[in-house]
Structure formats: C-alpha cells, structure tokens
Amino acid sequence: xxxxxxxHPLARALRVGKLTLAALNATLLHYVREDALTSLxxxxxxxxxxxxxxxxxESWREALAAAGIPCAAVAVQSTVGGGSLPGETLPSAALAVxxxxxxxxxxxxxxxxxxxRTADQQALFDAxxxxxxxxxxxxxxxxxxxxxxxxx
Length: 152
Hints:
Aspartate Aminotransferase, domain 1; elongated
C-alpha cells in the first residue's frame, strides 16, 4: 500500500515540505513541554476554573451595578468547539444584561468589538470567552454601548 501511495501522481503535490515539518515539530514540542496550556488563549479559556469565572462575573456585575446598569450573574454552558468537539460543553458563568435594542450589534461594531449571545431575551457575556486581561475593555464597551442605547 505504501509503495502504491508513493508512486501515485498526487504524492509529489501533497508531499509535506520542510516548512510544514518544522511547524509541526514546533507545535508538538509546544504541547510536550505543556507551554500550550499557558500560552494559547483557547487552552487558557478551556482550563479556567469555574469559581474563578464566577468571581470575575460577579466583579463585572458589581462594576456595572455601581454605574446603574441592571444585570445579573448567571450559570451557563460554554460550547467548547464546533468542528473539533461538536456538542461538548463546559460549565461557565456569564453576565446577563437585559437586551437593550441593538446592544449586541452596537458592541460588535465597537472598538474593540465585543461578541455576546442572546438567551431568554438577555444578552449574555461568558467569562470563559474573555481573558482576564480583557475585563476592563469589556466593561468599558458595555457601559458605553448601554448608555448609548438608553440615550436613543
């Protein structure tokens, strides 16, 4: 079978080159050394502990409540992946904001863009999808978008 594959006309076109092998080697070493668990955002998000996520959402809620913005901390399930892990979820915590007209669209168009989801007529912002270093940016974007929504 190997000999047949090696002599197939597509073998030359689909052969892995030096750059691909070097990239694959670097990626695999990253995982073997477990650097990926701390340096890749997706692994940081998937590895976040639920109590830490709940505490962050509670701090978001408190900051927005102090600004007069009604919101709540809620338990949610985060989808881990679409193609690689279809249907897999992790428990998470989210901030629920009453869905002001156009809030999510306004946030997506902002700088930085913020993407949330809608459930039960509320806009949800899942802490598992926000790195801790992005908390201040998220709060600033939410405050600005909500104030703008209330003024219109």
